[in-house]
Structures are given as C-alpha cells and as structure tokens.
Amino acid sequence: MADGFIALPVDSSGKKLRTSDRGAAGHDQYVVPTDLRSVSYKGRVATFRTPGRAGTVGQKIFSIHNATGSTVLVDLHKVTVDLAVTAAKAVTVLPPLIRLWKVTVLPSSGTALTKVADDSALTSSASVTVLQDAQADGSSSATALAATLPAGTIATQEYAARLITAAGFEPMDRAEFLGGEGEVITLRALEGVVVFIDYVLATQNPITDQWAVTARWDEYTVA
Fold first, then answer.
1. DSSP state of 168
2. For the chain, what are the domain ranges?
C-alpha cells in the first residue's frame, strides 16, 4: 500500500480534516491511526507441561513456522517460558540457556499444539504450524521435536532459573520474550522460531524438571 496525500481546497468544500472542537478557542486537528495490515487471525497457544530430556545436546520445546508458499505473514508478539525445577544445582553448574532461534527449515516430530483464537470468528492459516515436545501434561512426545538451527540466528536469550539448594521458596520465574511495545518477529513464508533449551550436561535439564511455553501471534496480509 503506497503512501499519498490529499490536497484540501481553500474554500473548505470537499475533503475535510478531523478536528476536536474547543468552541471559541478553535479546533485541534487529530489523526486516527490505521493498521496497514489486513489481519485474518489473532491466536495463542500454551504447551503441556514438558519434561526435560537430560542428555547433552539440548532440547527443542516449542516451534512456530510459516510454510513455504504461505499467503500470510505472521507477527510473533510474545513468547513466555516457565520452568519448575526439581533438583538443586551447584553454583558452579550453569542453568540451561533459553534461546529463541529463528529458523527456515520446517520443524518436525513433537506434538501439534491446538491454536486458541482471540476471536472465534477468525481461522488460522494451515500454513502456520505450531509444535511442542510433550504429548500430554508431564509426558514427553514419543519422538522429540526436531529442528535445524542455523548459525547466527539467535533472536534473544535468557538463562533459566535454578535452585542452589533444595530448601526454601522458589519464586515465580517466567521468562518473557518480545513482550515490549513494537517487539515482534515477522515470519515470512519458510520462516519460523524455535525455543531451544541449550545445555551440555544431563544434570542441567533432568527429566523431572518441567517446562511450559505460551505464545501469541497475528496472521495477516498487506495490500
């Protein structure tokens, strides 16, 4: 959609400007913001409680992907990651690093997530797929969520919480990504985002730990 302008006639006929009438003091011009996007869907998802997988190569726990040939764009507005820790870790052992990784290759395996529409009258595009690494609360997917992570495409990251000792109170520790004004990742056709739990020691992500992810996005076209 191209920008343009409208010439206003000097005799006040024809096109008009919007103003707020302040009476004798005059008029204040105001602008009505417009969204150049034609939004076809606004939705969100929440994963099952996802067990850690131990091992030494990290774990993909969530993905959203816009397929090749897709006719919509996707704005990913918010991703949150929460962790319930079940085992104390020594101060010298780093917690896992939560990374939002931008990808191109379609992720595979795992378990499909059910999309929740903000407006039930809108329908999500079949080109937009959302996967998790659990088949039920507390039960890992039969085949782990898999994704190709290109070098140099980490969008943002944050260390997960940890227990230094198993005594005391574990505060709420949800990590929030892309939650600020204007913070979005736009996914064009054949682009996606994967939440990757990055670690190299099995004790950093034991199978008794539980992860939970939520995400929110818009699907739209631009004229």
1. S
2. 36-222
